[in-house]
Specification:
Elements: E1 4-6, H1 10-21, E2 26-28, E3 35-39, H2 43-53, E4 62-64, H3 71-74, H4 80-89, E5 94-99, H5 106-109, E6 114-118, H6 123-132, E7 136-137, H7 152-159, E8 165-167, E9 179-182, E10 189-192, H8 198-205, E11 210-211, E12 235-238, H9 243-255, E13 260-264, E14 275-277, H10 282-296, E15 302-306, H11 312-324
Bound molecules: threonylcarbamoyladenylate and magnesium ion.
Magnesium ion binds next to loops.
Length: about 325
């Protein structure tokens, strides 16, 4: 299949919407990462998303909307907590999990009785979704287990020839995927941390939010089980910023014939070493995280990342970094 590369002019947006309604796959930008869109009402189209990504069929998809009025078509009930979140926090880099309408296909929800819903904040995402005129399922537009794409060139790397079109918009501002918040039971729970913090959510719903941090905890979010965000080369993660330990590990790798790189905040601290800046602020680290992994995997044979940030966004970054490194902590 010849993938079309479209812009955000009116004609291309209309074409992208039509492709979706015809059952094709179209990748599009959001504020978090690029998504791989399909018509949520078309089961065949949704199924083809799993094929294009090589994604296990028991990992459910998020349904994307441009208007809050679409929610009742997707969720069969909206509890008071959910209503507050919808009114006060959406649109945002946030996904909520609610009881599903019977009309929502089991292919989308992987057989669960709940459905994930997200209204993106990015104007380009909402313009696309509006042009589709239907709710759109969209996982991140990467091959399964690879780092999520945060610009259209990285989408092309994984999806060229496999999907009908890529909408070539801006690079993603946030850089890591949305916070997934389960509101389908009485206990609000964050299943995947992201830019919208537990504190922000707790302030809106007026009660504490449980955060699932240990992937071994029994959770009803199948996605957390899988290998994720992994670069093509091995990766180690340092969490204490111990310069000597990092330098020793680097030198051991060199002695073994590796060409390693340090992904660190202050590259000046490691003269003579291959270095790449991870970012000075948590926002910068998140924004560049997946792009850095995709850049460095092509130039080096081992990535050693060091991250010592703190705060709610740091927790989300750590969640991604730990998975990228396959729990290989230095
Ligand atoms: O930022 C994002 O959320 C991006 C953009 C494109 O919107 N999308 C994204 O989709 O990250 P994906 O498929 O890569 O991740 C969806 C996550 C998975 O961890 C999945 O298990 C979880 O959401 N999920 C989906 N439906 C669920 C449900 N009904 N219950 C619990 N978790 C669910
Ligand atoms: Mg993903």
């Amino acid at each position: 299949m010849q993938t079309k590369y479209l812009t955000f002019c009116d004609q291309h947006l209309a074409q992208a919407g039509q492709l979706i309604r015809e059952g094709q796959l179209v990748a599009f930008p959001t504020e978090t990462v690029y998504g791989l869109g399909a018509n949520a009402w078309d089961e065949q189209a949704v199924l083809s998303t799993f094929q294009a990504k090589g994604r296990p069929s028991d990992n459910p998809l998020i349904v994307h909307i441009w208007d809050k009025g679409q929610i009742p078509q997707i969720a069969r009930s909206i509890c008071d907590m959910a209503q507050k979140v919808i009114d006060q926090l959406m649109p945002a880099p946030l996904t909520i999990v609610l009881p599903k309408q019977p009309t929502i296909s089991n292919v989308i929800t992987a057989g669960l009785d709940t459905v994930a819903i997200r209204m993106p904040m990015s104007k380009q995402a909402r313009d696309f979704l509006q042009a589709c005129q239907v709710p759109v399922t969209a996982p991140s537009a990467n091959t399964s287990s690879r780092p999520s794409p945060t610009n259209w060139q990285r989408v092309a790397e994984d999806m060229d020839g496999k999907i009908a079109a890529v909408l070539c918009g801006d690079a993603c501002q946030v850089g890591i995927e949305s916070t997934v918040l389960d509101l389908s039971t009485d206990t609000p729970r964050i299943l995947r941390p992201g830019m919208v913090s537990p504190q922000q959510i707790a302030a809106v719903i007026g009660q504490p939010v449980q955060v699932i941090t240990n992937p071994k905890d029994k959770v009803n979010s199948p996605g957390v089980r899988y290998k994720h965000y992994a670069p093509k080369v091995p990766m180690a993660l340092n969490l204490d910023g111990d310069k000597q330990k990092i330098a020793d590990f680097y030198n051991q790798l060199v002695a073994l014939g590796h060409n390693p790189v340090l992904l660190v905040a202050d590259t000046n601290q490691y003269p003579g070493f291959n270095c790449h800046p991870i970012g000075k602020t948590n926002q910068q680290v998140a924004h560049n995280l997946f792009e850095n992994l995709r850049l460095l995997e092509n130039k080096y044979t081992y990535i050693i990342a060091s991250f010592v940030g703190t705060g709610p966004l740091a927790d989300s970054i750590l969640n991604r970094l730990t998975k990228s490194a396959g729990n290989n902590i230095l």
